[in-house]
Write a structure and sequence with these properties.
Blueprint (H helix, E strand, L loop, with lengths): L5 E7 L14 H9 L9 E6 L22 E5 L9 H12 L3 E5 L19 E2 L35 E3 L1 E2 L19 E3 L6 E2 L8 E8 L6 E8 L2 E2 L5 E2 L2 E4 L7 H4 L16 H4 L4 H14 L6 H13 L1
Parallel strand pairs: 1-2, 1-3, 3-4, 4-14
Antiparallel strand pairs: 5-9, 6-8, 7-10, 10-11, 11-14, 12-13
């Protein structure tokens, strides 16, 4: 039982720009998280949404001291191409993770989010074009052949504004449970013409891919979500849970509602799958709620005793 709202930081690695994927384009995600309630009818989440704001030294004052900030979870939308996180930003996020903070990391095609390579114990879940390639050489080629300016990894799961059928991997992970679905599992995610690459790093035995997408161009399956359980590092720290997701387009306004618009550099024609069948959005919303609950840090022994004592007195 949660005794306080889950404190979530929605964070991009970009400065605030009108014509880019700045945090204001994640307004539907924030509104949905803000609308969630616990069993007592109180807000389930307390959400702060912000873009990166480097100081005179190039460090973000929140990310570089994240271990001292009042957050339970970091949902990191890495939208840069290498300059989105400073060394001190990465150190602050790493300390937060070592304290048990839960972290979602997501980016997109090619080298978007490249600055995450410096995130200890987290960045290696993501595959890029110019470094940290997918270990499978057969995947080091363009999948989306329609947008010639974008190279691998770029899995084509459909048009922005459409939904894609996903394949949960057995055993079904709790993140993919939806009691209101006919199958009791999440079946649909927002589609995107060029999703990024994620996989399980060799030194993360607790992690596994939990859902696959399928390219509409090549028919190739690809990882949508990799989930890492809490684990202890060499120093005895209990690291928080981690999610690596193939694209931020699963969460952005434009992919939930194309009428919300997109930056001018997006040239692909949108679809209208969600406009025609808005009920299909229920699955991604169920996933978002599951994610907020799953990433919550494990309570300390003293907190567990307090909760148990409170429950026994009721």
């Amino acid at each position: 039982m949660l005794t306080a709202p889950i404190r979530i930081l929605l964070q991009t690695t970009l400065p605030t720009l009108e014509d880019d994927w700045s945090i204001w384009r994640f307004s539907l995600l924030k509104e949905y998280l803000d609308s969630l309630q616990d069993e007592m009818g109180k807000p389930l989440c307390q959400v702060i949404a912000r873009d990166r704001k480097p100081d005179a030294d190039g460090d973000d004052p929140i990310l570089s001291t994240l271990d001292r900030a009042d957050f339970d979870e970091l949902w990191l939308f890495a939208l840069d191409v290498g300059d989105g996180l400073s060394r001190k930003d990465c150190a602050g996020i790493t300390r937060f993770h070592r304290q048990g903070g839960g972290i979602l990391t997501t980016r997109d095609h090619q080298d978007m989010g490249l600055s995450m390579c410096a995130l200890e114990g987290i960045g290696e879940f993501h595959y890029f074009n110019t470094k940290q390639n997918d270990p499978d050489p057969n995947r080091r080629k363009a999948d989306d052949t329609f947008t010639a300016t974008i190279s691998f990894p770029n899995y084509h799961s459909g048009k922005n504004g459409d939904y894609q059928a996903i394949q949960p991997i057995e055993p079904i992970h709790e993140l993919l449970v939806n009691p209101d679905s006919p199958t009791k599992t999440i079946q649909y995610f927002p589609a995107h013409p060029h999703e990024g690459g994620v996989g399980v790093a060799p030194d993360h035995p607790s992690a596994r891919a939990i859902a696959l997408g399928t390219s509409k161009v090549s028919g190739c399956p690809f990882n949508l979500i990799v989930a890492g359980e809490r684990t202890q590092d060499a120093h005895g720290n209990t690291l928080g849970r981690v999610i690596a997701q193939s694209t931020f387009h699963h969460f952005v306004d434009y992919n939930w509602d194309i009428d919300k618009g997109c930056p001018s550099f997006v040239t692909e024609a949108p679809g209208d799958g969600y406009r025609q069948e808005p009920e299909k959005l229920d699955d991604i919303k169920a996933y978002v709620k599951n994610l907020a609950l799953w990433l919550v840090p494990k309570p300390s022994a003293s907190e567990t005793k307090v909760v148990a004592a409170t429950a026994a007195s009721l």
